[in-house]
Amino acid sequence: IPGENDPIIPLPNGEALANHIEGARFCTLVDAGHELNPRDLATIRDEITAFLSEVDAARSPACYRSAPDTT
Fold first, then answer.
1. In principle, which of 12, 28, 42, 65 could form an S-S bond with 4, CB 3.0–4.6 Å?
2. pLDDT 10s digits, 14-67
3. 54: phi > 0 → left, psi -120 to 50 → alpha, else beta; which?
4. Four-residue CA torsion sign, 31, 36, 37, 39
């Protein structure tokens, strides 16, 4: 979740990375740079929570199977 005015990591780099990660979402923080600003904490929390909810909902029951017994 980069700031749209990040001088260190340009937005196209973040977008390119997200495009190469299956299931990734790309969002930016408006009027933000590279540093974490306390005013953005709620947005960051909401984006992460929404993403994790989607990932959890998309998991198949096979993800929850026990590992095979190798003994």
1. 28
2. 999 999 998 888 999 999 999 989 999 999 999 999 999 988 777 655 555 555
3. alpha
4. positive
